[in-house]
Amino acid sequence: MTLSRRTFTAGALATGLVAASTPVRAQASRYFAGRTEDNGFVYRNTNFKSIDETWHRQVVKYYSDEPIGTVVVDTRHHFLYMIYENQTALRYGVGVGREGFQWFGRARIDRRALWPRWVPPPEMRQRQPELPALVEGGAADNPLGPRALYLYRDGVDTGYRLHGTLEPWSIGRNVSSGCIRMFPEDIIDLYQRAPNGTAVLVLEHIAKPT
Question: Quick one: pLDDT band at residue 205, thresholds 50, 70, 90?
Protein backbone atom coordinates (compact mmCIF):
# COMPACT_ATOMS: atom_id res chain seq x y z
CA MET A 1 0.00 0.00 0.00
CA THR A 2 1.32 3.47 -0.83
CA LEU A 3 0.38 6.89 0.38
CA SER A 4 -2.29 8.67 -1.63
CA ARG A 5 -1.75 11.13 -4.46
CA ARG A 6 -1.65 13.95 -1.91
CA THR A 7 1.37 12.50 -0.15
CA PHE A 8 4.33 14.85 0.10
CA THR A 9 2.41 17.64 -1.64
CA ALA A 10 2.46 21.01 0.00
CA GLY A 11 -1.28 21.00 0.41
CA ALA A 12 -1.06 17.88 2.52
CA LEU A 13 1.15 19.51 5.12
CA ALA A 14 -1.75 21.15 6.91
CA THR A 15 -2.16 20.04 10.49
CA GLY A 16 -5.89 20.23 10.50
CA LEU A 17 -7.01 23.54 11.96
CA VAL A 18 -10.65 23.60 10.89
CA ALA A 19 -13.40 25.54 12.61
CA ALA A 20 -16.25 23.51 14.00
CA SER A 21 -19.84 24.58 13.48
CA THR A 22 -21.10 27.62 15.37
CA PRO A 23 -23.78 25.69 17.31
CA VAL A 24 -21.12 23.32 18.64
CA ARG A 25 -18.82 26.17 19.62
CA ALA A 26 -21.68 27.82 21.49
CA GLN A 27 -21.83 24.74 23.74
CA ALA A 28 -18.08 24.24 23.93
CA SER A 29 -17.78 24.76 27.68
CA ARG A 30 -19.59 21.51 28.44
CA TYR A 31 -16.76 19.57 26.77
CA PHE A 32 -14.20 20.73 29.37
CA ALA A 33 -13.76 20.07 33.08
CA GLY A 34 -10.84 21.70 34.86
CA ARG A 35 -7.22 22.03 33.83
CA THR A 36 -4.03 20.00 34.17
CA GLU A 37 -0.44 21.22 34.33
CA ASP A 38 1.96 19.26 32.17
CA ASN A 39 5.66 20.00 31.70
CA GLY A 40 5.22 23.65 32.58
CA PHE A 41 2.10 24.23 30.48
CA VAL A 42 -1.61 23.80 31.11
CA TYR A 43 -4.32 22.14 29.04
CA ARG A 44 -8.06 21.95 29.53
CA ASN A 45 -9.27 18.54 30.66
CA THR A 46 -11.78 16.79 28.46
CA ASN A 47 -15.14 16.28 30.13
CA PHE A 48 -15.62 12.69 29.08
CA LYS A 49 -19.13 12.70 30.55
CA SER A 50 -20.05 14.81 27.52
CA ILE A 51 -18.29 12.47 25.08
CA ASP A 52 -20.01 9.43 23.61
CA GLU A 53 -18.40 6.33 25.13
CA THR A 54 -17.68 5.11 21.60
CA TRP A 55 -14.77 7.57 21.53
CA HIS A 56 -13.39 6.76 24.98
CA ARG A 57 -10.00 5.02 25.16
CA GLN A 58 -10.58 1.31 25.75
CA VAL A 59 -9.11 -2.15 25.18
CA VAL A 60 -11.04 -4.07 22.49
CA LYS A 61 -10.80 -7.24 20.45
CA TYR A 62 -9.06 -6.41 17.20
CA TYR A 63 -7.92 -8.83 14.52
CA SER A 64 -4.90 -7.67 12.55
CA ASP A 65 -1.89 -9.16 10.81
CA GLU A 66 0.22 -6.19 11.89
CA PRO A 67 2.95 -6.77 14.51
CA ILE A 68 2.36 -5.96 18.16
CA GLY A 69 3.09 -2.29 18.81
CA THR A 70 1.92 -1.09 15.39
CA VAL A 71 -0.42 1.89 15.24
CA VAL A 72 -3.34 1.35 12.86
CA VAL A 73 -5.70 4.18 11.93
CA ASP A 74 -9.16 3.33 10.62
CA THR A 75 -10.29 6.58 9.02
CA ARG A 76 -13.70 5.26 8.03
CA HIS A 77 -14.71 4.49 11.60
CA HIS A 78 -12.60 7.20 13.27
CA PHE A 79 -10.49 4.89 15.42
CA LEU A 80 -6.77 4.55 16.12
CA TYR A 81 -5.52 1.19 17.41
CA MET A 82 -2.33 0.31 19.23
CA ILE A 83 -1.94 -3.39 18.50
CA TYR A 84 -1.60 -5.62 21.56
CA GLU A 85 -1.10 -9.37 21.87
CA ASN A 86 -3.85 -12.00 21.74
CA GLN A 87 -5.84 -10.18 19.05
CA THR A 88 -6.54 -7.16 21.21
CA ALA A 89 -5.77 -3.48 20.86
CA LEU A 90 -6.00 -0.23 22.74
CA ARG A 91 -8.52 1.84 20.80
CA TYR A 92 -8.75 5.61 20.69
CA GLY A 93 -11.36 7.82 19.05
CA VAL A 94 -9.89 10.25 16.51
CA GLY A 95 -10.78 13.03 14.13
CA VAL A 96 -9.58 12.52 10.55
CA GLY A 97 -9.15 14.37 7.27
CA ARG A 98 -12.15 15.87 5.59
CA GLU A 99 -13.01 15.11 1.96
CA GLY A 100 -10.11 15.94 -0.35
CA PHE A 101 -7.53 15.82 2.42
CA GLN A 102 -7.48 12.16 3.42
CA TRP A 103 -4.25 10.25 3.24
CA PHE A 104 -3.45 6.56 3.52
CA GLY A 105 -0.51 4.20 3.69
CA ARG A 106 2.47 3.23 5.80
CA ALA A 107 4.75 5.51 7.72
CA ARG A 108 6.86 5.55 10.87
CA ILE A 109 7.06 7.78 13.89
CA ASP A 110 10.54 9.27 13.63
CA ARG A 111 10.05 12.37 15.75
CA ARG A 112 7.99 13.14 18.85
CA ALA A 113 7.47 16.48 20.57
CA LEU A 114 6.16 17.68 23.91
CA TRP A 115 4.16 20.86 23.51
CA PRO A 116 5.17 21.28 19.86
CA ARG A 117 5.08 24.64 18.17
CA TRP A 118 2.83 24.95 15.12
CA VAL A 119 3.93 26.46 11.81
CA PRO A 120 1.03 26.65 9.32
CA PRO A 121 2.31 25.85 5.82
CA PRO A 122 2.07 28.61 3.17
CA GLU A 123 -0.79 26.87 1.39
CA MET A 124 -2.89 26.84 4.54
CA ARG A 125 -2.18 30.50 5.16
CA GLN A 126 -3.28 31.27 1.63
CA ARG A 127 -6.60 29.61 2.37
CA GLN A 128 -6.80 31.21 5.81
CA PRO A 129 -4.84 34.51 5.70
CA GLU A 130 -5.73 35.28 9.30
CA LEU A 131 -3.50 32.46 10.57
CA PRO A 132 -0.23 33.43 12.27
CA ALA A 133 3.15 32.46 10.86
CA LEU A 134 3.98 30.50 14.02
CA VAL A 135 2.30 29.50 17.27
CA GLU A 136 4.60 28.58 20.12
CA GLY A 137 4.16 25.31 21.97
CA GLY A 138 1.89 25.59 24.96
CA ALA A 139 0.05 28.64 23.61
CA ALA A 140 -3.69 28.56 24.24
CA ASP A 141 -4.43 28.70 20.50
CA ASN A 142 -1.91 26.06 19.41
CA PRO A 143 -4.04 23.39 17.66
CA LEU A 144 -1.49 20.60 18.18
CA GLY A 145 -2.07 20.48 21.91
CA PRO A 146 0.33 18.83 24.36
CA ARG A 147 1.99 16.28 22.04
CA ALA A 148 2.70 15.57 18.39
CA LEU A 149 4.00 12.40 16.74
CA TYR A 150 5.55 13.12 13.33
CA LEU A 151 5.11 10.60 10.53
CA TYR A 152 8.01 9.87 8.18
CA ARG A 153 8.39 7.63 5.16
CA ASP A 154 11.81 6.55 3.92
CA GLY A 155 13.35 9.16 6.16
CA VAL A 156 11.25 12.00 4.74
CA ASP A 157 8.74 13.96 6.80
CA THR A 158 5.32 13.36 5.23
CA GLY A 159 3.92 16.49 6.85
CA TYR A 160 1.32 14.43 8.70
CA ARG A 161 1.06 14.18 12.46
CA LEU A 162 -0.83 12.48 15.23
CA HIS A 163 -1.59 15.31 17.62
CA GLY A 164 -3.93 16.73 20.23
CA THR A 165 -6.87 19.02 19.66
CA LEU A 166 -8.48 22.08 21.20
CA GLU A 167 -11.87 20.86 19.94
CA PRO A 168 -12.89 17.63 21.73
CA TRP A 169 -16.24 17.70 19.93
CA SER A 170 -14.39 17.09 16.65
CA ILE A 171 -13.37 13.55 17.61
CA GLY A 172 -15.32 11.06 15.53
CA ARG A 173 -15.66 13.48 12.63
CA ASN A 174 -13.97 14.29 9.30
CA VAL A 175 -12.60 17.70 10.14
CA SER A 176 -8.87 18.07 9.60
CA SER A 177 -6.58 18.81 6.68
CA GLY A 178 -5.16 15.31 6.82
CA CYS A 179 -3.62 14.90 10.27
CA ILE A 180 -5.08 12.65 12.94
CA ARG A 181 -6.32 14.54 16.00
CA MET A 182 -6.92 13.07 19.44
CA PHE A 183 -8.13 14.13 22.86
CA PRO A 184 -5.24 15.76 24.79
CA GLU A 185 -5.34 12.94 27.35
CA ASP A 186 -5.15 10.36 24.56
CA ILE A 187 -2.25 11.87 22.64
CA ILE A 188 -0.32 12.07 25.93
CA ASP A 189 -1.11 8.40 26.54
CA LEU A 190 -0.13 7.38 23.00
CA TYR A 191 3.08 9.40 23.23
CA GLN A 192 4.11 7.22 26.16
CA ARG A 193 3.33 4.01 24.28
CA ALA A 194 4.69 4.83 20.80
CA PRO A 195 8.45 5.51 20.75
CA ASN A 196 10.39 6.63 17.72
CA GLY A 197 10.45 3.81 15.19
CA THR A 198 6.82 2.82 15.76
CA ALA A 199 5.18 1.62 12.55
CA VAL A 200 1.96 3.35 11.49
CA LEU A 201 -0.62 2.08 9.01
CA VAL A 202 -3.48 4.30 7.85
CA LEU A 203 -6.06 2.06 6.24
CA GLU A 204 -7.25 3.00 2.78
CA HIS A 205 -10.87 3.73 3.59
CA ILE A 206 -12.61 6.75 2.18
CA ALA A 207 -14.11 8.42 5.19
CA LYS A 208 -17.81 9.17 4.79
CA PRO A 209 -18.92 12.78 5.30
CA THR A 210 -20.15 13.61 8.80
Answer: low
